[in-house]
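Case study: NADPH-dependent F420 reductase.
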Amino acid sequence: MSDLTGKTVAVLGGTGPQGRGLARRFAAAGLDVVIGSRGAEKAERIAAELSEAIGVTVRGAVNADAAAAGDVVLVVVPWEGHAELLTELKSQLAGKVVVDCVNPLGFDKQGPYALAVEEGSATQQAAAILTESRVVGAFHNVSAVLLEDPDVERIECDVLVLGDEREATDLVQALADAVPGMRGVYGGRRRNAHQVEAFTANLIAMNRRYKAHAGLRITDV
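Here is what the predicted structure looks like once written out:
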């Protein structure tokens, strides 16, 4: 937690289930959190609801203002708008640690599947766009249902953290460690992000079959 002292965590796409859930857990852990959305009104409304629910102040703003306010900025937006948003916010995200949480997935009658990404993965696409940011991939495999459930006190799962800059990956591991039950585990460089993002399709298929909210645990580390 010492690495996070005085830092603001921004969650772009913080009004969706995954973003809302992560914002809830980080704020409950005592971190300064601002959630971003395309519209300020929606962001402020969701932030007020979270603040009331957990008894800690959460701020809301348009994505550009949230990005500017954050020291660590999580990208939790739909894959379809990923490249466009990051391109728009390149200047606001310069010099920051940007955590890409996006899973490029498709769905058909056979279930979820991983999409091909020209750059290799969403994390690598973010790094290609945000050339002045330190991009880390993380929080791909965490259940939004569990994150948002107020009756779940601990999120019992490991978070694979992928990046090329040790200081940045250490910081994101500390961010994961801040949530009770959650643990950040270094998972390799950005070039290894594809299989971590894609594995979310397997987890969704498992959860549908077993009516569960499965996550990952890494043994012997």
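For the exam, be able to explain this: The chain has one domain: 2-210.
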